[in-house]
Design a protein that fits this description.
The structure holds three protein chains of three kinds.
Chain A: E1 10-17, E2 27-34, H1 41-52, E3 71-74, E4 77-80, E5 94-97, E6 104-106, E7 109-110, H2 113-121, H3 143-150, H4 160-164, H5 166-170, H6 177-187, H7 195-202, H8 216-220, H9 227-247
Parallel strand pairs in A: 1-5
Antiparallel strand pairs in A: 1-2, 3-4, 3-5, 6-7
Helix pairs in contact in A: 6-9
Chain B: H1 28-58, H2 61-71, H3 74-101, E1 105-106, E2 109-110, H4 113-136
Antiparallel strand pairs in B: 1-2
Helix pairs in contact in B: 1-2, 1-3, 3-4
Chain C: E1 2-11, H1 15-27, E2 33-37, E3 53-54, H2 63-73, H3 80-99, E4 114-115, E5 125-126, H4 132-144, E6 150-154, E7 156-164, E8 167-175, E9 180-191, H5 212-219, E10 224-225, E11 230-236, H6 247-250, E12 254-256, H7 286-298, E13 303-305, E14 308-314, H8 320-326, H9 328-337, E15 347-356, E16 359-361, E17 373-375, E18 380-381, H10 394-415, H11 422-439, H12 448-462, E19 466-467, H13 469-486, H14 500-524, E20 533-534, H15 542-545, E21 547-553, E22 559-565
Parallel strand pairs in C: 1-2, 1-9, 2-6, 9-17, 16-18, 19-20
Antiparallel strand pairs in C: 3-5, 4-5, 7-8, 8-9, 10-16, 10-21, 11-15, 12-14, 13-14, 14-15, 21-22
């Protein structure tokens, strides 16, 4: 496979360690891992875990960019480590840290319960006045109608967008990019009528108006969900709604 | 070790990082964002000036002449220059934000972002041209 | 030790587990209900499934066609009553998912669109481009949030089932983030922890698929059924084992050897046509295609790469537009992980361990022989998959049998009185075991990773696509030695906080048990059927082996193999004919 280039035999990784039982704040520990052209950062971490230091903790599973477990900061940028090739970070050292703006539980593991609370708050399920009996078949939805929300349904909850959002860092109450994109995914679904129920949380104090369009969330998203787009779209909806309620108070539902 | 006093077995001992004061220098996008936040006062400045101008107009020709004379003072010209640059910066931001906020569809297909951005620039050009023509024709 | 109490406890938060939990909540909202999972539910491996889920929808299709494709695909080892129930309930389950918001691909008029898959006579695979597992899991997870009765224990690792008086009465688990060990007393437990692909070195399965549920049930006395049947998917990317979906072939992709020849025509799979033909060539069943690869390799007609032999999957002739519309994930995976564009280049592929047909023995309602214990999804064996699972039946199986197990478990739980206090003693024994033999263990010299690698190599060498009695015998001994060496494990991490070395050790010990069951079952089945090909017994033997194997754990820890007759209703065993 191709000519043999001169490749470094090993690569150095500077990895965050945090052992709450022993230390009060995180430190960086350096490890050497073999360099291979087709290895990703996660492969190097697994090498370290398996051969060098069994006590290094991190999350991973599918290794194909869809389970969303292995998000970390690689050289300061939020990345899925299963898709971050070592070759893109040569000559190293490669800095591997837990996702920023989240509390660190241990080493590279962060706590994301906050997101799960927020996700539930935006009601990410189909809201209907009445559920149609299964015997009446599917809800019709044309490919064009599907296309309207499809992009926002691709979110894998990997949390990279939160780690990229300085607003979330400064205002941890902010509902945040992924949860808003998922709310918008259901708002735009032709089968759903729950937009009204989601309005309070989305255009409330910690909702869309916190966002001032940094745009970084969209840039780091590994699935092209475009949460920034979702938020801007919703601002238009939210503003229209506000005008309506101020100018036509009697028309308010 | 002092840390052990804080850790209790079976309880999480999260480390919460404080966001650095210099976080906005981390990337150009963050810097741009903070710049936008701070410079929004200049947009407000233009709005206030326009309101003033309107009031002067209502108060009669004399008041208006006085107002215009006031504008010609060199510090105010300098402020206007700076404000113009920042408003330009904001306009460009808005043009690029437009396709994110408004998804347009033509025959079921999403209109590409660059078309919407292009239309905005085009409208801007026409508006500027019209104003220039109105001002410069005499 | 904290002890919680629930009427129904679901272990595992993937497709089957969440479907079961929702079924419980809907069947009886008064029951207290919880889902416990070692990962957040949306990380579950259901997320990786790509191609689609089968259910009859077209007017020219019928339940009988679906049943026949499934049964012949499974080489007549499927229980036909289970298959009939499965195909009948499949469409309603898929519709239910549609009503919950799953973004299925549509026809221009807004109806559900379907595609064909391997071994299928009529198109019946529902799909959402090529990310259906992902959409299914997230739809189920997001829908599950609406049930307030459903409580979750996320990132809690179940280490043992509590059994007393011949009944399953709960679990012991570790909260990974804090190391806290606790028990949940439950009137019924539903296991939905998925398969065990990780006992093999080269697999499409995620790191979390370590056979936990299988081993938990096996240790608690429930038998594992048909464990010898391991599905190799014919199209995995070398090194990573990333799956290239069967949909790539159903849309018209070709398998080419190193001479650019569609080699499947040499293996009784039909004649090459430019357009895909159902139940023919590239749309043959997975076991046949993987076996053909090995034969091709023996003939020296495969490529040799740094990660073993491979052939090409060619989808270039489908064109960029179709690939982007129907196979976007294939393109994304190829570009991101092997740096090639399938629109312009051929994809290197090799067979890869993908799915366990076998699992915990259950009846048609998901009930195991251990009262109070239910199982559904890949962890279970009902059996509708027989000796070889048909592509796109597994996601549907998660839904149909997840729902069935949920309803049955809800019914069982409602009839039970309060749980038995005798289990608390067992729970504290388990706590002692975990703390003494793992968390506080300071001696030992074996590394988890080296034992795991040896186990995986052993499994690949003996229980791969082709097997022999001699190799299996050797493997049984090797695994037994690995079991011994496991006691001499060296653990470097003694932290109570997110100790993944501890969970890694527990997973390894689960995998060793499951590996032994696979090898013993394969050794005992002296015939070739579906995915189980014995070169020393190359014929199918309906006389002796038209039966499910059952592996029981003996008190010494070794498996004992027993057999159970297959249920035949309307389709007597015949020949598997493809390409005609």
């Amino acid at each position: 496979m191709g000519s043999r280039e001169k490749l470094p035999p090993t690569v150095t990784l500077a990895v965050t360690r945090y052992r709450p039982e022993e230390e009060s704040e995180p430190t960086l520990q350096t490890y050497e891992a073999p360099y291979r052209k087709d290895w990703v950062v996660l492969d190097a971490l697994n090498y370290i875990k398996d051969k060098v230091d069994g006590s290094l903790s991190f999350r991973w599973s599918c290794r194909m960019g869809v389970c969303g477990s292995c998000g970390m900061m690689v050289n300061g940028e939020p990345k899925l480590t299963c898709a971050a090739f070592l070759s893109d970070y040569l000559p190293g050292p490669i800095r591997v840290e837990p996702l920023q703006f989240f509390p660190i539980v241990r080493d590279l593991v962060v706590d994301m319960t906050d997101f799960l609370h927020k996700l539930k708050k935006v009601k990410p399920w189909v809201v209907r006045e009445e559920e149609r009996p299964l015997s009446e078949g599917e809800y019709r939805q044309t490919p064009e109608q599907l296309d309207i929300y499809k992009q926002f349904s691709m979110c894998i909850n990997c949390m990279l967008c939160y780690a990229a959002c300085p607003i979330y860092g400064l205002e941890p109450g902010f509902v945040g990019p992924a949860a808003i994109a998922l709310a918008q995914r259901y708002n735009l679904d032709s089968r759903d009528i729950g937009a009204q129920e989601r309005l309070d949380i989305l255009s409330g104090k910690d909702g869309i108006w916190e966002c001032t369009f940094v745009g970084e969330c969209t840039k780091v998203c590994p699935k092209n969900v475009d949460p920034a787009g979702a938020i801007q779209q919703y601002k238009l909806t939210g503003a229209a709604h506000w005008f309506k309620s101020v100018l036509l108070p009697w028309g308010r539902k | 070790m002092s840390a052990e006093a804080h850790y209790t077995r079976y309880h999480p001992q999260w480390y919460r990082r404080r966001v650095s004061v210099w976080w906005w220098l981390q990337s150009w996008r963050y810097t741009k964002f903070v710049l936008r936040e701070l410079t929004s006062v200049f947009v407000a400045f233009f709005a206030v000036i326009t309101l003033w101008q309107l009031r002067a107009l209502v108060d009669g020709p004399q008041a208006y002449t006085q107002f215009v004379r006031g504008l010609k003072s060199s510090p105010l010209v300098a402020v206007h220059g700076v404000a113009f640059l920042f408003v330009l910066f904001h306009s460009i931001s808005w043009f690029h934000l437009a396709p994110k906020a408004m998804v347009m569809r033509l025959r079921g297909k999403r209109v590409p972002d660059w078309v919407i951005v292009g239309l905005n620039y085009f409208a801007w050009l026409i508006a500027s041209g019209t104003i220039a023509w109105l001002l410069l024709r005499g | 030790m904290d002890v919680f109490s629930r009427d129904v406890l679901v272990v595992g938060g993937g497709g089957a587990g969440l479907r079961a939990a929702i079924a419980v909540a809907e069947a009886n909202p008064r029951l207290s209900l919880a889902v416990i999972s070692k990962v957040y539910p949306m990380r579950s491996h259901t997320v990786s499934a790509e191609g689609g889920a089968a259910a009859v929808i077209k007017p020219e299709d019928s339940f009988d066609e679906h049943a026949y494709d499934t049964i012949s695909g499974g080489d007549w080892l499927c229980d036909q009553d289970a298959v009939e129930a499965f195909v009948k309930e499949a469409p309603a389950e898929m519709l239910q998912l549609e009503h919950w918001g799953c973004p299925w691909s549509r026809q221009p008029d807004g109806r559900i669109a379907v595609r064909s898959f391997g071994g299928m006579k009529v198109e019946r695979t529902w799909f959402a481009a090529d990310k259906i597992g992902f959409h299914m899991l997230h739809t189920l997870f997001q829908t599950s949030l609406k049930y307030d009765a459903l409580q979750r224990y996320d990132e809690c690792f179940v280490t043992r089932l509590l059994v007393d008086d011949g009944r399953c009465r709960g679990v012991v688990a570790i909260e990974v983030a804090t190391g806290r060990i606790f028990a949940i007393a439950a009137k019924t437990v539903i296991l939905a922890t998925g398969g065990c692909g990780r006992v093999f070195p080269f697999t499409t399965n995620g790191a979390i698929k370590t056979g936990d549920g299988m081993a938990l049930a096996y240790r608690a006395g429930a038998p594992l059924k048909d464990m010898e049947f391991v599905q190799y998917h014919p199209t995995g990317l070398p090194f990573t084992g990333i799956l290239i979906t069967e949909a790539a072939r159903s849309e018209g992709g070709w398998l080419l050897n190193k001479d650019g020849y569609r080699y499947l025509q040499d293996y009784g799979l039909g004649k090459p046509e430019p357009k895909p033909v159902l139940r023919s060539m590239e749309l043959g069943p997975r076991d046949r295609l993987s076996q053909a690869f090995v034969k091709e390799q023996e003939k020296g007609r495969t490529f040799e790469g740094p990660y073993g032999h491979y052939v090409h999957l060619d989808i270039r002739h489908l064109g960029e537009e179709l690939i982007d519309r129907k196979l976007p994930f294939v393109r994304e995976l190829c570009r991101k992980y092997v740096n090639l564009d399938p629109v312009k280049e051929m994809i290197p592929i090799q067979p890869v361990v993908h799915y366990m047909m076998g699992g915990i023995h259950t009846d048609i309602h998901g009930a195991t022989p251990l009262p109070g214990l239910y199982a559904a999804g890949e962890v279970a064996c009902v059996s509708i998959n027989g000796a070889n699972r048909l592509g796109s039946n597994s996601l549907t199986e998660c839904l149909v049998f997840g729902a069935r197990a949920g309803r049955a478990a809800a019914g069982f739980a409602a009839e039970q009185k309060e749980s038995n206090p005798a289990v608390f003693a067992q729970a504290s024994d388990e706590q002692k075991r975990l703390e003494e033999s793992l968390l506080r263990k300071t001696d030992g010299k074996e590394r988890i990773a080296s034992l795991r690698e040896e186990m995986q190599k052993t499994m690949e060498a003996c229980a791969g696509i082709y097997r022999t009695g001699a190799a299996l015998q050797q493997a049984a001994q090797d695994l037994h030695q690995l079991q011994e060496r496991f006691h001499d494990l060296r653990l470097e991490d003694h932290s109570y906080t997110f100790n993944t070395e501890l969970t890694g050790a527990l997973e390894l010990s689960f995998m060793l048990d499951v590996g032994e069951a696979i090898v013993a079952s394969a050794l005992a089945r002296r015939e070739s059927r579906g995915s189980h090909q014995r070169t020393d017994h190359p014929q199918r033997d309906n006389e002796k082996f038209l039966a499910h194997s059952l592996a029981y754990r003996t008190p010494e820890g070794l498996p004992r193999i027993d057999y159970l007759p297959v249920t035949i209703t309307r389709w007597p065993p015949g020949q598997r004919v493809y390409g005609k």
